[in-house]
Amino acid sequence: MIRIGLPVRNAGLAGLMALALAACSEGEAREADGPSITTSEAIRDDLMISVEATGQVEPIRNVEVKSRAGGEIMRLYADVGDRVEAGQLLAEVDPRDVRNAFNQAEADLAVAEARDEIARSQLQRSKDLLESEVITPQEYESSNLEYANAQAQLVKAQTNLELAELRLQDVTIRAPMAGTILARNVEEGTVIQSASGNVSGGTTLFLMANLDAMQVRTLVDETDMGQIEAGKPANVNVEAYPGRPFRGEVEKIEPQAVVQQNVTMFPVIVQLDNRDGLLRPGMNAEVEVSVAQRPQTILVPNNAIVKPQEMAPAAMVLGMDPEGIEFDQAQYRALTAELRGEAAPAEEAEGGSDEAPQMSMEEIRAKVQSGEISREEARAMFQAAGGGRGGAGGWGGRPGGAEASEPGAPTPAVAFVQLADGTFEARAILTGVNDWDNTEVLIGIEEGEAVALIGAAALQAQQQEWINRIRERMGGGVPGMSGGRR
To answer: Rounded to the nearest 5 degrees, what angle is found at the Cα of 80, between the Cα atoms of 277 and 65?
Structure first.
C-alpha cells in the first residue's frame, strides 16, 4: 500500500508547531486553574490632591500715563524696562504756549490789583464828598459799583493765574506710582493730544505697572469649583524656569462664568510675590491649586477599590462565590467608631430594624416561594440586604453623617485583601481622598498588605451576570428591578 502524505520540509517548522501546541495546552491549564489576578501592595506615602489649569502671568494693575497738556514732546527721560519711583520726571512737553498763558495771567492779575486799589480810593473819596453834600447819592452809588467790578476782576485774574500755573506744571509728566515702564508709545518730537481737552482721552505716553506683585488669570472647570476658595495655596510653573515652582495663593474667584467650546469655566486669580523680578508679563503659566494634602497615609491603586453594592460582581471577577461572602453594614459603623477613637456601637436587639439585612438571598427566596412574604416585601428585603443600598446611613452614603461635599470625608468601600494562603477576603474599609492613580485608605488595610486589582471592564461584565442570577433565584425577577439596579 502506498501512503501519501505531506513531507516536512523544515525541521524548524515542526519545532514551532510543537511549541505552539504546548503553549495552547499551558494556556488551557492556566485557564482551568482560575482567572489571572493582579495584586498590589498598600504603601505609605504622601498624597496631594490638586486642581490644574493654565493661564498667563500679568500685572495686578496697569497704569496708562497721559499728559494734561497738548503739544510737542521735547524730551523723554524714561524707556521701556526702566524702574521709576513715584513722582519721577518721565517727559516734557513744549512749554511755550502754557508759559505765554502764564505770563499773560500774571499781567492780568497786576492790572486787576491796580484797578482794585484805584476803585477803593475813589470809593473812599466819594464817601467823604457825600458826607460834605458835595455829590449826590447817585454818584456815590456809581463809585461803589465800580469798586465791586474791580473786586470781581481781581478774583478772576487770581483764578486764571492759578490755572495757568497748573497748566505750566502739566507740561512735565511725572510717574504716578512706583513701577516699571512696560511700553513707550511716543518719541521726541511727537505731537500729543491733551487728556483733559480731548474727547478721545488724549495720547498715552507710557504704560507702566508695579511688577513686585503679579497674578495669573486662569480658567478652572466648574466641576472643580467646589474645592477651590480664596486663600488656597497654589504652585505656578513657567517654562522659563523649569523645576522651579513659584508659591502663590488664590486671591479670588470671579462670579461670571466663561463658556469655551461648550465647557463652563470660572476665572480664578492667583497672586504671586515677584520681588525677585523673575516673572514677566505674558509668560505662560501652569497653575496647580492644592486642595488636600495627606502626609504619610496608606495608599492603594484606584482599581483596588469597589463600592459595597459592587462587591458580589467583584468577587465573581476574582473567581470567588459571591453568595459565600458575609457582609454587614455594622462593620462600617464599627470602623467609623474606631477611626474616631470611640467605642464600637452595640448590636441592635433581635427583631429590630436590622433583621431583614441579616437575611440571606436563599432565605428571602425560600420565603417568597412558600408564600410567607410577597414579592414587594422581598424587594424591600433585597434592597436592605445590600442590593442597591444607598443614601444616608447605607453603604452608598457616608458614615457618621458626613456631608458628601466634604472633601476627604470617610467613604464606605470594599477591597479584596490577599491572605497568607493566597486566597482573598472581602474587607470593609473607609476611604478618603483620591487622585488619578491612588486612593487614601483611612482604616481597614495595613501597610504591606496585598490587594486585588479589578478591571472596570471585567467588573461591568460580571454585574449583568449577577443581576441575571438574582432574577432567576427570585423566581422570575423582583418587581420593579431593572438592569441598572442591583
So the answer is: 105
**CB of 444 closer than 8 Å to CB of 30:** no
Task: Note the pTM of the prediction, 2 decimals.
Answer: 0.58
Residue whose C-alpha cell is 497738556: 69
The answer on pLDDT for 446 being more than 50 is yes
Alpha carbon distance 282, 291 (integer Å): 26
> CA 263 to CA 257: how far, in whole Å?
10
Tens digit of each residue's pLDDT (9 = 90 or more) over 234-285: 999 999 999 899 999 999 999 999 998 899 999 999 999 999 989 999 999 9
Nearest C-alpha neighbor of 451 from the set 442, 459, 441 = 441
- Please tell me the distance from the alpha carbon of residue 473 to that of residue 278, in angstroms, as a whole number: 70
Buried b (16+ CB within 10 A) or exposed e, 62-79: ebbbbbbbbbebeebebe
Is residue 175 a contact partner of residue 158, using CB atoms and an 8 Å limit? no
Which residue type is seen at 257? A
Helix (H) or strand (E) holding 69: none
| Three-class SS state of 418 | strand
Name residue, grid cell 470781581: 152
Q: Which residues contact residue 369 at a Cβ distance below 8 angstroms, ignoring those fewer than 6 apart?
A: 475
Which residues contact residue 295 at a Cβ distance below 8 angstroms, ignoring those fewer than 6 apart?
A: 46
Helix axes 96-131, 137-170, angle to 10 degrees: 160
Cβ-contact 179, 127 below 8 angstroms: no
Nearest to 299 by CA among 378, 195, 141, 415: 415
The three three-digit cell numbers of residue 157, written as one number: 485774574
Quote the Cα angle for 137-142-146, to 5°: 145
Q: Assess contact for 458 and 366: CB atoms under 8 A.
A: no
